[in-house]
Structure formats: structure tokens, C-alpha cells
Amino acid sequence: MEMYEQEKAEAIRRIEAMGRSAGDFTFEAAMLPPDPDGGGMFTVQYEIRIRDTTTDKGLLAIGGIGSDWVGYFEEALSEGFFD
Prior knowledge:
- It contains 2 helices and 3 strands.
- With 83 residues, it is α+β, with helices and mostly antiparallel strands.
- Helix 1 (2-17) runs parallel beside helix 2 (69-78).
- The longest helix is centred in the N-terminal third of the chain and has 16 residues, at 2-17.
């Protein structure tokens, strides 16, 4: 989950860059089973549940190789999804 931890740190930087408090958000990650259509390659994927504790609004994102959940989260945050 090293990749997730690095991405989470980036998500926190983006929260703070928008003038929000990182402490208002929780992040929970859970590994997903490998994609059976991966052609024999092991593809790491995980589900990230993000919640704003001040509004109780949550977002579900998928992370892993080839995914940009941090960008998806940042877009939702900047568009006021958590307001």
C-alpha cells in the first residue's frame, strides 16, 4: 500500500492548497481482488473511501496502477462536492 500512502499524502497537500483543513477528511483504503481480465498480469487496485467529517459527505474512488484517484478527488473538492 506504499503507492496509496504516497497518493494520500498528495491528496492532503491538495486539500491544504485549497485552504481547507486536511483534518476534516478521512481516508480508508481496501485492496480489491486482481482483475481476471488482466492477461495474467497482477494489477494492483484499491478502493478509497473519502469522507468530509464536517459535512458527512463521502466519495468512493478507485486507485492503483493507471488510476488517478487524487485528481478525481481534487476535482470533486474544487467543484464543491463536499460543501
